Amino acid sequence: MLLRVSRTIFLLIFFVIFFGVGQVKAVVPAVNITVNLPSRTIELFSGDRLVKEYPIAIGKLATPTPLGSFAVDCKEINPVWYPPDRQGIAVPSGPDNPLGYRWIGFWNTYGIHGTNAPWSIRLAVSNGCIRMYEEDVEELFDMVNVGTPVKVTYDRVNVRKDAKGQILLSVYPDIYGSGTITIADIKSRLNAYRLNALVSNDLLKKLLDEPGDRRVVIASQFGITVNGVLLGESGLTVGDVQYVPILPVAQAFKQKIAWDEKTKSVLYGKTIVPGIDSNGVVYVARANAGMLFQVEQNWKAGENLLAFGAVAAFLNEKPVYLEVNKLQGMPAVSARSLADALGRQINWDESTQSLTMDDKGKSIKVPVSMIGATPYVKITDINQYFDVYVYWNDEGKTLELTT
Fold this sequence. Notes:
Blueprint: H1 2-19, E1 31-36, E2 41-46, E3 49-59, E4 68-71, E5 74-77, E6 102-107, E7 110-113, E8 124-126, E9 130-132, H2 134-141, E10 149-153, E11 157-161, E12 166-171, H3 183-190, H4 201-209, E13 216-226, E14 229-230, E15 235-238, E16 241-245, H5 246-252, E17 258-260, E18 265-268, E19 271-274, E20 276-278, E21 281-285, H6 286-293, E22 297-300, E23 305-308, E24 312-315, E25 318-320, E26 324-327, E27 330-334, H7 335-342, E28 346-349, E29 354-359, E30 362-366, E31 369-371, E32 374-378, H8 379-386, E33 389-393, E34 398-402
Parallel strand pairs: 1-10, 3-8, 7-9, 13-23, 24-34
Antiparallel strand pairs: 1-2, 2-3, 3-9, 4-10, 5-6, 6-7, 11-12, 12-13, 13-14, 13-15, 15-16, 16-21, 17-18, 18-19, 20-21, 22-23, 24-25, 26-27, 27-32, 28-29, 29-30, 31-32, 33-34
């Protein structure tokens, strides 16, 4: 009784999620089934969204489960079993029937069904059919129809992201001896998550040498903001290292960086840090990203978020855009963004790295410090040279200018 109540609750949640309360007629992607033999699992999808995964038993080596694309061709409650080696014998539904209480046929005499031998689940022991726990097959039975696609695959590598942003990798045993897989095969699957160059070969080799049913967390994604704006590219935590996609961060800071493929280095002005090109995206370790731009970093574990340079700037109490970084622990503002905000005309001489500003017909030299290729003015010099009052709130990360 408890199992049937649980199944009813699951079905209710399923229909609420995919149809919506009071919107039963909404257009919803049709369900489809994927059977993967090495993992000994059935996956139920709605469109391309995974609804649930079930453990199964599959055909033994002598009578393997057939591979291919099929469709549900019949459904039966309380099926009768006809032993293939005993003509004229029919075993009615009940505890002695190895088909259990549900049959989902998909090709010739092959089907997905329950079992009176639950110990066999996760093993390769059947004559080719797919066995499920009774409560599982009854649940699946109610969610598929005649015509539902059934795809039977032989995929030894599975890479998937969970709801927490964790990237999970599984390498399954070669149940039918269909051939070996290599580290290169696994890395090609990691490309979808830009991990092929970030995950160590030693870890992949260990998984190859010891295939099993376990899922290993090889990385996790985290969000990145620059001055409060969320970037479209995620960061990646691999092992104990947080990797930052450096080009989107540089673009958000309106800075230009260069990637040296030969030395595997990122260049920003005179600052050089090591990088990794993984499937066309250059990553640097979080600490090195801080070295490049000298900006504030704030890791928000509860939000799974890395925030860069979240400084709010105001001019006469109105928000303005200023590029604020740190120079030896002291806030500094890029000369260009400061001049633009104040409506001042400045002249930057790249060859001599000197900044001058016109002030009432006179040209005065403004002291600057370089971060990469960009000149910055320390906040202690802003009042003297730009004739504005400056208030820096280190705790609140706010910079206020008053003319």
